[in-house]
Amino acid sequence: MDRTAAQARIQQLREEIERHNRLYHTEDKPEISDAEYDQLMRELQALETEHPDLLTSDSPTQRVGAEPLPFFEKVEHKTPMLSLGNAFNDTDLRDFDRRVRQIVGNDTVRYVCELKIDGLAVSLHYENGMFVRGATRGDGTIGEDITQNLKTIKTIPLRLSQPLTLEARGEAFMSKRSFEKLNKEREEQGEPLFANPRNSAAGSLRQLDSKITASRALDIFIYGLSDLQGDVQPPQAHSEGLQLLESLGFKVNQELRVFDDIEDVITFINGWTEKRPTLPYEIDGMVIKVDSYGQQQELGFTAKSPRWAIAYKFPAEEAVTILEDIEVTVGRTGAVTPTALLKPVSLAGTTVKRASLHNEDIIRGKGLLLGDHVVVKKAGDIIPEIVAVLPERRTGSEVPFNMPTHCPECGSELVRLDEEVALRCINPECPALIREGMIHFVSRLAMNIDGLGEKLVGQLFHDGLLKSVADLYYLHERRDELLSRERMGEKSVDNLLAAIEASKRNSLERLLFGLGIRHVGAKAARQLAEHFGQIDALMTATEDELVAIDEIGPKMAASILTYCAMPQVHHLIERLKAAGVNTEYTGVRAMEAAADSPFQGKTVVITGTLVAMSRPEAEEKITLLGGKATGSVSKKTDMVIAGEKAGSKLEKARDLGIPIIDEQTFLAMLPKNE
């Protein structure tokens, strides 16, 4: 077959195969047998092998990568993937409706109700109709590039039906049937079983070898559209956006409904509370969104979640089991935490063996005795907890539990600080504090070192290869010792060392959070990094300098000063620097606004669609220039930037007499280097 004929046949085969993929995986209406499908794939593979110059990234043959990745690259989300606020009962839903209507006024509000799929949130980026990148949610701002793994999901189109540029967001999941099949295969092979479909899906998508992901038969439902560009009429509502996504080839859940009244929403949700076990996949609630994009813009966001959406969580399942023992562990801050060890019981699709007890007062308050029958539920369908004791079932063999007076790891006497409930070990050389501190240091929100999990950190610490977090960056000098360890071949060791090396480039806020300074969370770490710029400036900061920063109070400032004064901390920082770990802030900085900046000290609202940039980009530029970007118009608003198809915010600004500028004027107000 000559090249011209081969090219025509390749195109025909690709279209036919993708059509059958859609019919089989998305529409559940297969037209050909598996053998016939395999024959089409073999013919396509043969032609692409014969004409390698005709091979393209959107070919169905390219869904599985050839070589495993050494580690996942980090991806910054153009628009943050925020979490949703939660509702647990009808009152919460009515309160949500009341808050929405207080902002949008007398306008009609329509709600879209969707099943909350229990899986892993991902973003899919398309340029001119081609799938170019897929990423995990991560911490909402930074995710991981898992493009090759997402390509293995056959319900994700590699090429859209129209050459549009967009971002689609969805929930990747594993069906109940696929989960059962996978666990059956693992049982036959003598491998440990997976706990539930959600964890199986998440673990499958984070495999460095996409062939493993492909073997797991994952699926996806798309629930969001953003950053749409191209020759298409932009949708005006979320439900219209889902219709567009479906027409482009995405799989959209068909159980969604649109309602004009919150009472109808509540009735719909209550119906699904009972029906959820009949679904072929797991759901843990419902998502309710304001349908109108214009109203979504008017409602805006809080720091953590959109005001126009909420997640209703189904009531947690409960089960009765026996409290067999209580285990005590020491965390990275020295807090001694009791954990209930239970007789295994099935709960919400998983086997529960442990439950959190938090502290001694919880044990006393619940009146727990070892051997008690207890009622266990999953808080938010995630964390098991004991909600009640059944004293009527006692036989007389139950015994009290007493918290230890000395640290179970180092033997030091335990103390209570500042009238805290928790007992603490305050020995800085306690092995538990050092080990747990290392586990925190490599965690996702801190230095985010792939391949270095809790178990491996514990082993390396136990064997003396790690005595402090700085030792991580000298492990390359002990490569032979790593290779001698069980289940650590050359590839896994090299991947681990590459991930450690990559973490050296992290911005300062990750390092500060990873160091585990008491009371300093991820948000405070970012504020400190942005304010001081480099770790040396923070190490010499005064109390006045610290408390002058928003949300850094006297208690946190005292903790930071105590930490920075310790000689061993100075030694640690010097070792990290010597190893090449970045100690400067490299994120977006709120620049010193010029005295003549038109945004200095101004509260600005953006409404409508901007052409030159996305709304988050514009809001970031306003913030960098000394302004404050908010989501709603009020008497305190100083300026409104009106893009295309501006809605009720524009009208409200006119009624209040607030200055209004168009996008071109806004762009002209930006510094030239912007």
Automatic annotation (TrEMBL):
Positions annotated to bind NAD(+): D34, A35, E36, Y37, D38, S83, L84, E114, R137, E171, K289, K313
GO MF terms held by the record: DNA binding; DNA ligase (NAD+) activity; metal ion binding
Species assigned in the record: Brevibacillus fluminis
Chain's gene name: ligA
DNA repair found in the keyword field: yes
Domain of life: Bacteria
Protein EC: 6.5.1.2
Domain annotation BRCT: ranges: 594-674
Entry binding sites for Zn(2+): C407, C410, C425, C430
A Pfam family: DNA_ligase_aden
Recorded family membership: Belongs to the NAD-dependent DNA ligase family. LigA subfamily.
HAMAP family: DNA_ligase_A
Name of the protein in question: DNA ligase
PANTHER family named among the record's database cross-references: CHROMOSOME TRANSMISSION FIDELITY FACTOR 18 (PTHR23389), DNA LIGASE (PTHR23389:SF9)
Assigned keywords, A-Z: DNA damage, DNA repair, DNA replication, Ligase, Magnesium, Manganese, Metal-binding, NAD, Zinc
Known function: DNA ligase that catalyzes the formation of phosphodiester linkages between 5'-phosphoryl and 3'-hydroxyl groups in double-stranded DNA using NAD as a coenzyme and as the energy source for the reaction. It is essential for DNA replication and repair of damaged DNA.
The UniProt record lists the keyword Metal-binding: yes
Cofactor(s) the record lists: Mg(2+); Mn(2+)
Active site: K116
Top EC class, one word: ligase
NCBIfam families: dnlj, PRK07956.1
